[in-house]
Specification:
Largest sheet: none
Strand content: under 5%
Shape: elongated
Structural class: mainly alpha
Order of helices and strands: HHHHHHH
Distance between the termini: 16 Å
Radius of gyration: 19 Å
């Protein structure tokens, strides 16, 4: 079944499968499906068939990725609030850092849920996790009053660790997708 275009849009779509109300289409899903409806590969598949295939890929990734790889992808790309929060929590418990636990939690959360523009002006969906602006203030992440250089070093180390884990997870997911031959052939 070749109906997906690239790895990242496929990951986002597949990780959103557990949060989709199949009775109404999400606006982002309409955009992804629009190209397929205009005669591209997969255009003969029903919306339900595509959703079912997304769910199968979701289960396949969940089964074949390592736990940390799965959690980093869910934390970064899932639209399911509870799953995203749970994945962040599991990543916090796995993260080795000289920083205190609160700092690790806040740094990981800020990485997984970056500050978004347009929230105050209601340009973005409100059905997503939105953290208060104060959450991103690194001064609130450390109750011991460590120097800013130390806090920046801790944050940089945590972000680098997450980015490395994310890269490994995407590479592994790409290998899984390639085995399943899910991508539209660029002809």
């Amino acid at each position: 079944m070749s109906m997906y275009k690239d790895v990242m849009s496929t990951l986002v779509r597949v990780l959103a499968a557990d949060n989709i109300d199949n009775s109404t289409k999400q606006s982002w899903q309409k955009l992804i499906d629009a190209d397929l409806r205009q005669g591209g590969n997969g255009s003969t598949l029903s919306v339900r068939d595509k959703f079912d295939y997304d769910c199968c890929l979701y289960a396949l990734l969940h089964r074949q990725l390592g736990r940390a790889q799965w959690d980093v992808l869910v934390a970064k790309y899932s639209t399911h609030k509870a799953n995203k929060v749970a994945a962040i929590g599991r990543l916090v418990s796995r993260t080795t850092s000289p920083a205190p636990q609160l700092f690790v939690y806040k740094a990981l959360t800020a990485w997984a849920i970056p500050k978004l523009k347009g929230i105050q002006t209601r340009k973005r969906s409100t059905d997503m996790i939105v953290l208060r602006a104060e959450f991103y203030d690194m001064n609130t992440w450390d109750t011991e009053g460590k120097p800013e250089s130390t806090r920046r070093r801790w944050k940089t180390g945590i972000v680098k660790l997450m980015e490395k884990l994310e890269e490994e997870a995407v590479i592994h997911a790409t290998e899984i997708f390639d085995r399943e031959q899910i991508f539209i052939d660029a002809a």
